[in-house]
Amino acid sequence: MTAEIISVGTELLLGNILNTNAQFLSQELAALGITVQRQSTIGDNHDRLAEWVEAAKARADLLVFTGGLGPTADDLTKETVAACYGDSLTFDPEEWEKITSFFARMGRQTTPNNRKQAMVPVHGQKIPNAHGTAPGAWFEQEGRCAVLMPGVPAEMKAMWAEQVRPRLLARQNCTLHSLTLRVLGGESDIEYRVRGLLKNENPTAAIYCKTGESEIRITARAASDQDGAQMCRAYAKKFYDLLGDAVYDEDVPGLAHTVVHTLAARGLTLSTAESCTGGMIAQQLTGVPGASDVFGYGFVTYWEQAKARLLGVNPAVIERYNVVSGPVAAQMARGARAASGSDLAVAVTGLAGPGGGDAVRPVGTVYIAGAAGTSVFVEKFHYVRPDRENTRARAAHAALELALRLAQGKAPAGCYRIDAAACSDPAALAALDGALIL
Amino acid sequence: MTAEIISVGTELLLGNILNTNAQFLSQELAALGITVQRQSTIGDNHDRLAEWVEAAKARADLLVFTGGLGPTADDLTKETVAACYGDSLTFDPEEWEKITSFFARMGRQTTPNNRKQAMVPVHGQKIPNAHGTAPGAWFEQEGRCAVLMPGVPAEMKAMWAEQVRPRLLARQNCTLHSLTLRVLGGESDIEYRVRGLLKNENPTAAIYCKTGESEIRITARAASDQDGAQMCRAYAKKFYDLLGDAVYDEDVPGLAHTVVHTLAARGLTLSTAESCTGGMIAQQLTGVPGASDVFGYGFVTYWEQAKARLLGVNPAVIERYNVVSGPVAAQMARGARAASGSDLAVAVTGLAGPGGGDAVRPVGTVYIAGAAGTSVFVEKFHYVRPDRENTRARAAHAALELALRLAQGKAPAGCYRIDAAACSDPAALAALDGALIL
């Protein structure tokens, strides 16, 4: 089965909004085993739209439209597509009742234009919209179909999930099951290692690159959800075999979620001490519902005096080793744990730029420390892309990665270990600094 | 002049990447006075591509391509478009030299495929790529043009700004000047108020909605930059006349920048105390280069005991009024100022959900406080869309808005004022709570 995605709206052609609908629908159609051959965006112009739809209808089994279902004179999609599929529209009192009562609840009056939204296919079907006023529409002629959905992403996605995808699955007499692996590590490296698994017919597998990690989505089409789940699990094993414990979780939105869930499962608490990341780690942790079970204290210590006053970092250590150094990161982590009483703490100090930096500590240098039990682990990073936000985001991700290893009770790889009690000892700090400066 | 944007790449049709290039180019072409009539995305398939280009060439004066310039057999755009414009390709030793030396610097070997990237138009022009290995191309036939750029957004944007836009400006014998206004307030409300100014030929004006604010971009085409600047300024005045001081700044990336710049200009410092926003305000402030001049301390006090220990919030006040309340917000702001010694402080406590909430404090209830001089200002918000991230983002934005008013030395509108010294006084706290609970 082949499809084309057609987005309708002059605001897209002007670049006023980003077309995220086309990506979403492409992913969903690919998962259904439907080949998307073209995406296109056209304006609200009757003649151009009609010509376009005729040509697309001749090429593809299914046309998926978003946008152009509003009440204004500009909104022409429904009547234009109806005509192309040999259908027409009729007024639907039930839809009109929904629209008028929605307006009444909002304390607003309907205008004659709103009646357009209550027009539904005569031969095709209307598609109920549980999240807005405009119903969608389904047209069909000689086995060729067109589906029309609203342009507002939230409404479109809901209509897709509740109404359109089930119809397509029923047509194909199958069900879909998905499994998402989240993988730590350099993106192009991960993609290279698993490239042989990314061109499969069923299950399909796709990789999406994120900061410091990748997402691998496996989707199986099967007669039952149970069969689909088994197929996904078997295919996931191939990824695990290649990637080992770089796969850190399944079916979560991101690393902060896994950190919070792991801490909760083990009854542990975490605190944060941030300099260059400036609150980014705390913000990601508190973005997870239920974070308050495991996270209570975050210190954003941007100034040296704040590091001293809130975290007990020794000003002489800053003076001696620089504020961007292993010894300072270690004292920050130790201090956050002490000030908050948490089981674990992570700390970040670094140089995000654009200014500052020298030969020893160029922009992009970041030290990350984690305190757990009697240990403090310290790690040095140097991010080469000289971009403030990118450096901060990667540093925050690395700190969460360290937090995860500590929460799992694993000794983090690639870190220098110093005894928590030795974090004030000049010789131990000198050794730490020497080990990480090289 | 009319144009179509054609993105080439199977990875776009699979939804593996989001097409941000089309939006960027649509904005840029609109600013140049070029009407984009269609955007389309097609795969790396020779026959489909050729057919598509022939049809598009018949419709539009200019075709703008991104993607398909890589070294693999899949990358067909250049030869296909060349043929459609009656041109062909020839090997360019200078480009080949660039490619081989780039590979040598990376410690890698070129493959025979890489020679494809050194092929350039015979009659048209190559477009130098200062940020990657693949040169772009310009084809022309009977006044109809095609320009080919790489698909990687950073390379494409650089080639556009350095090479393609200047060519188009020279053709149109003009220059471009832009001015961006940043406007506080409800997005649809702002758009409604300025709608009469958004359909202008020159300067053009477009509105982009963001969390808690809008961006209005004014772009003038003129013979000189000076003329363009004057045209933009005159048109901006129309927006100022409609919007007044809702326009908070010009040509900055966002509110945090204006807050940092305003604080710096006035020699003031700010600290933050965050509960439900969990570090988001601090993270936005520290995202601004130079933030360390004005921001040193951020407290993420997610637990009640953290509010008490770090900010001196009275547990009895939490007990009496609830942790999500005006009295607690006021004590948090006062405490952050005291603990950090900053001139100003802002604090947020709220219920981002998804759980919790009752009739008095439903999910989405947020209290924001700002401390300055002898005053603490407190404001209550209720965000109706029940989405954790959206509630947090809007609360952080509202706190920055309050910080801006305090930094400007303005009494913030819509706030309840309490004397800083009265923040421990039971009667004053009761009055504050009563005023904001209603």
What order do the helices and strands come in, and which of them pair?
Two copies of one chain form a homodimer.
Chain A: E1 2-8, H1 10-13, H2 21-31, E2 35-42, H3 46-59, E3 62-66, H4 77-84, E4 89-91, H5 93-105, E5 119-121, E6 125-127, E7 136-141, E8 144-149, H6 153-172, E9 175-184, H7 187-194, E10 204-210, E11 213-222, H8 225-243, E12 247-250, H9 255-266, E13 270-274, H10 280-286, E14 295-301, H11 304-311, H12 315-321, H13 326-340, E15 344-350, E16 365-372, E17 375-382, H14 388-407, E18 416-419, H15 426-437
Parallel strand pairs in A: 1-2, 1-3, 3-8, 13-14, 13-15
Antiparallel strand pairs in A: 4-5, 6-7, 7-8, 9-11, 9-12, 10-11, 15-16, 16-17, 17-18
Helix pairs in contact in A: 3-4, 9-14
Domain MoaB/Mog (chains A, B): 4-171
Pfam families (chains A, B): CinA, CinA_KH, MoCF_biosynth
Protein name (chains A, B): Putative competence-damage inducible protein
